[in-house]
Amino acid sequence: MDTLPSCHWEMLCIFGTGDLGRSLGQRLFQTGYKVVYGSRRPHSCGPLPPGTQVQSMIHVAAAQSARLVFVCIHRENYNFLETLAPQLKGKVLVDVSNNLKKNMYPEANAEYLQRLIPGAQVVKGFNTLSAWALQNGPSDASRQVYVCGNSLEAKQAVIEVATKLGFTVLDRGSLTAARELEDFPLQLFPEWRLPLQLATGLTAFFFFYLLIRDVIYSYVVNDKDISFRIMASLANKVFPIVSLIMLSLCYLPGVIAAFLQLYRGTKYKRFPDWLDRWMLCRKQLGLVALALASLHVLYTLIIPIRYYVRYRLAAHTISQIKENKTSPFDTTMAWRTDSYYVIGILGFGLYLLLGITSLPSVSNVLSWREFSFIQSKLGYLTLFFCTFHTYLYGWDKFLQPSSYKWFMLPGYMLSLVVPSVVLVLKLLLLLPCVDSTLTRIRQGWERTDPEQERKKLLLT
Amino acid sequence: MDTLPSCHWEMLCIFGTGDLGRSLGQRLFQTGYKVVYGSRRPHSCGPLPPGTQVQSMIHVAAAQSARLVFVCIHRENYNFLETLAPQLKGKVLVDVSNNLKKNMYPEANAEYLQRLIPGAQVVKGFNTLSAWALQNGPSDASRQVYVCGNSLEAKQAVIEVATKLGFTVLDRGSLTAARELEDFPLQLFPEWRLPLQLATGLTAFFFFYLLIRDVIYSYVVNDKDISFRIMASLANKVFPIVSLIMLSLCYLPGVIAAFLQLYRGTKYKRFPDWLDRWMLCRKQLGLVALALASLHVLYTLIIPIRYYVRYRLAAHTISQIKENKTSPFDTTMAWRTDSYYVIGILGFGLYLLLGITSLPSVSNVLSWREFSFIQSKLGYLTLFFCTFHTYLYGWDKFLQPSSYKWFMLPGYMLSLVVPSVVLVLKLLLLLPCVDSTLTRIRQGWERTDPEQERKKLLLT
Amino acid sequence: MDTLPSCHWEMLCIFGTGDLGRSLGQRLFQTGYKVVYGSRRPHSCGPLPPGTQVQSMIHVAAAQSARLVFVCIHRENYNFLETLAPQLKGKVLVDVSNNLKKNMYPEANAEYLQRLIPGAQVVKGFNTLSAWALQNGPSDASRQVYVCGNSLEAKQAVIEVATKLGFTVLDRGSLTAARELEDFPLQLFPEWRLPLQLATGLTAFFFFYLLIRDVIYSYVVNDKDISFRIMASLANKVFPIVSLIMLSLCYLPGVIAAFLQLYRGTKYKRFPDWLDRWMLCRKQLGLVALALASLHVLYTLIIPIRYYVRYRLAAHTISQIKENKTSPFDTTMAWRTDSYYVIGILGFGLYLLLGITSLPSVSNVLSWREFSFIQSKLGYLTLFFCTFHTYLYGWDKFLQPSSYKWFMLPGYMLSLVVPSVVLVLKLLLLLPCVDSTLTRIRQGWERTDPEQERKKLLLT
């Protein structure tokens, strides 16, 4: 007792002396718990964590010694636990195990354990932590412990231990959530996959499209090698195009959903699955688009320090002098380019604001009225600015035949299709008559088809 | 029982089958609760949430069936609840209602409900969530549920339900806080209103001031149309001016408060209301100023790609060649402009740091000594850098008569007034004798006027 | 009772009417508690918080009146509490005191208090708050209250009070943590000290190194005063150099640790202290490096608006015309400079991503697999991009003898040493045979030296 740090907390039992079991035991011991390891033969549990004063007992004795038993062994070895069922009766079994792949087994490890030893109270927990966090306590990405289990008392006991180890505990309900918890450490940005794939696909498409239209066309037709433009000029066309399309794709599902609700006359019918999934990744779509927009900004700002640009400007000045003619100052041009840049800056500023408010700690302090104001109202404003910025970029280029090389539309025109459609549809939804109907539907009102009504009455 | 998902939690009763009641019921059912709706006649509560297996009973039976009753009806219809007082006695009534406007009624809905049914334990809660969050569970801006109520046990029961639904619960104390909770969903950035109004006002003023001084003056006096400069050049003067003034306004109230404390000789007298309100919106003032400063940075960085600037530079080079004279390199000019830019960059960098540390999740991990170090010490340093940046911009322009067109001072001079005053006052406060007195006052020491002391003694 | 706001919560006692005691009393009263101050003589506790209706009793009576006693007096005055031991028996004593310096006393104030009055249940708490937060409730940097104590019930009572005051409570375990809590308000970015010192040292070194190499060399050898370049050009060399070195220093300890584990054949041996400390400040190293990289970006972007650069460009154009020769367009140069800029932008973009994911609220929502993916995989990619960016900057400069002024290597070469070493070592670790061994070691496998094994067996 004297060698224990500060507190004399209860005794805990750990089954399994693999990495997980040893890390957990070390941390528990350091926090002030008495830890005992279960093993097949007494004093044979292999190398125990250095510096710890833990005991090793045979399984039966170990199981009896503590109220909480941490199961840190692989699922394949669970069956031996069945023989300990009498000793484990009424105990809290904390299943810390993880699998190597998703869907390896029909039921979650914790549920399997509960089925093996029905008399015990199985709690899933700690499995979302890295061995590093188990050994050293909470760190940056490992502050939260998720637990689930059918017995409230058992969960409470586990929560107490986790809190004492310094973690924040989130109760995820009954043991049916175990599957979800076991999948959690295996996941790698699941909600980012679709937006990233989309961004990659669009980027690749527009890269090759513009490569053909600009570089290869110039090589074939004009016999001029401008391949050096791939690095910066071409990328600075691809990024804003993809960014604008993805930004508009954030707002398209909302518009589609509104029209679907208007058509159906109720909000109580489920959306099709693809629409649901689309709506759930809007935040990620927007953030990927923001990243691309930021790249576009940086690519644009380095324009004047690029060798190619400096060379061209100097060459232009020199040619003006040699030909002894000075082009007059074009006020329209000044207005147009300045507007083009300024609208772009304002759009990007709003965009950054949307990004900042989607930080978890910022969105947490907003009321949902504030959140929806920013993400909806300011979001459409951002989309409008960015679309307008692109229209200003185009200006009267669509009138020049040289814009249609090999009958391919310039990239910026393609990028304008989706955002323009979204903005027009949104304008339609803002018409007073449409808006009021939609608001009523969203407040729970349902348009009842007179015929259907009659049928219902007949049925009852 | 068999069709219920996983857990068999207690039965809950919901009054009201509007949008709110139905969304809440659906979510409660999905989480594993048994839900019963109260209605006037049995089995007549209207369309229930699709896919749910909820019952509908007459009000009396429904109220008796559950310990928790969610009241999701409009306040105007509360009076019928009075007839259920015997059944609701000892029950927990969760008031989920919201009003359409602030201050519609003299007392909060929840307090009114408590007055109607004194035997029930009224808890205000869930009303800060959107119907969407109620139906689908926690999402970005809707993780937190606020509750308040006079009975600790009743609150505990509600907190348990909310936790099971996946929300984080914040206890806001007794039922007197209900008014605040009912106002919460109606608020739209209340603490941002003043700073945004100020920013708009200042921006408008300086825009028209500089419009007259630069564009209109040039049109009237020199007959030159430089209106195209409105878009970028003028804006890039207005933004930094307003930003600097607003940054200094963040620090002015602190300085005023310090002088007030020095004058009064105590910290235990309340500040005037306007000063209190001013101090409470300093963070928002600073963030709006940071947004404007960021726009200033972007506006400045696009300078070299603007048509107007490129034209002017080329024209300058051409004129030099034609007149066959080259202006010599001016080392002072190089020092001055580089210093001007560099000080601006450093000021902006510090400014960004202040912005980042004001993110909730960052400021939460700082000790208050660290937070005050950053927001005060680094804050004044930022103000100093930005003011110095503006002085360097001015340099010797104040000596040139051409700066005073139509007897109007240049914008940058106006912007320097408040920051210079703040910095001078702060320097005064840093004088050792003043500083030590202020520190003592802030530690609770009070300067006692000898005369007052005597009066006090006479009175006691 | 009637004048109390809303709730009739229990009575609390405060010892000490200094700044802390008065602020705390005011807040407690406003929240609805009855507050009584202990004093030597009845009704003589000095000026009480304005507007509060608190009583002042002699210490004995005050101590008896409440279950919770807040001790807001200096440690030096604790000894008088010993005389109150009979009255304080079984009470909860909340030690709110702080010291002026670290390590002033051999034991923490709270532990000293517990020793003085063994019969009381001492809880350390509230001391991490500023007096301002105590008086006005939670604000930006003061939301969290840390408590520690040996009695769970006593802590629970304190947690309840803190929660009612609006704070978030974190239980830090037993009273041995009191020392840590008392040190907390005194700390000023302890984990940032080393990285900031390193950054300052490296910046100073490279500043003087490049000052000699560029400016002084030019002055001595060419008799040309280019001191104006200190402000922007020199700084824009120093910042990226220091940033790259510090970024690579984030990844060096991980590589060293891996080789150490490979050499030792186990992960269960502790790393040397210097390595542990180094690894713990990697996040801060990286963020300081990010700040410097951001400055480098801004310094680079203002290049085209600098007077010196504009002058040089114009002079170059003019000289070309005068000599009537035009330098041909150099495609390699265009490729090279564009690649150099683009790689830099991509590196900086990834770098920003690393910075954003290290925000507490963002890293909290990541699983540790996701966190380690970003901080490790994307981190090495960032290091690679930034190193490659520097190599592209150098290009063939190392071939030109003019690069070695006074036998001093150019700054960028020095900056490439550490990152190149780190990248090569990391590549070695990624070799399949090395990688698989390391993975096994990290999963808990230990290489057992056959000789050692034998020795062990002999010993047992």
From TrEMBL, chains A, B, C:
A single Gene Ontology CC term: plasma membrane
GO biological process: copper ion import; iron ion transport
InterPro entries to which the protein is assigned, alphabetical: Fe3_Rdtase_TM_dom, NAD(P)-bd_dom_sf, P5C_Rdtase_cat_N, STEAP_metalloreductase
SUPFAM superfamilies cross-referenced by the UniProt entry: NAD(P)-binding Rossmann-fold domains
Positions of transmembrane segments: 194-212, 238-263, 284-309, 340-366, 378-395, 407-431
Domain Pyrroline-5-carboxylate reductase catalytic N-terminal intervals: 12-99
Catalytic function, reaction form: 2 Cu(+) + NADP(+) + H(+) = 2 Cu(2+) + NADPH; 2 Fe(2+) + NADP(+) + H(+) = 2 Fe(3+) + NADPH
GO molecular function, one term: cupric reductase (NADH) activity
Membrane topology: Multi-pass membrane protein
Compartments (UniProt record): Endosome membrane
Keywords carried by this UniProt record: Copper, Endosome, Ion transport, Iron, Iron transport, Membrane, Oxidoreductase, Transmembrane, Transmembrane helix, Transport
Cofactor(s), by name: FAD; heme b
Xref: Gene3D superfamilies: NAD(P)-binding Rossmann-like Domain (3.40.50.720)
Domain Ferric oxidoreductase per the UniProt entry, residue ranges: 241-385
PANTHER family for the chain: DUDULIN-RELATED, METALLOREDUCTASE STEAP4
Family assignment from sequence similarity: Belongs to the STEAP family.
Protein name: STEAP family member 4
Organism: Astatotilapia calliptera (Eastern happy)
